Amino acid sequence: MEIPATIRPVAALVGWTFAMELWIWKADNYNHLHEAPTRFYAVAVSLAVIQATTQLKSSGVEGKLAWAYVGIRIVHSLVQSLTNKIPVRFGLYALSEVTLLGLFGKLVAALL
Length: 112
Known about the structure:
Number of strands: 0
Oligomer: single chain
Radius of gyration: 15 Å
Strand content: under 5%
């Protein structure tokens, strides 16, 4: 059975969240990893379930968007933890939101 395209990125971000937990003195970043990605988990798992239980196949875009989101969130974590430059952080946050919105659009399309 083929693993849905969104599952590996979900596992990667869960792993990153646990890694940041080890660096707990960066508590703000740890909190942010539990706040912002919650919608990502819901969208990615929903897409995976839909693809696993219906005839809907992944176009490949879902996996690319999911990995892009994970990558952006990891870079955001590093910026916040190492330099905490607010304009850079905001740009990365905004980019992650646009990426997640694209993934959400794929979910909405799958549900229609």
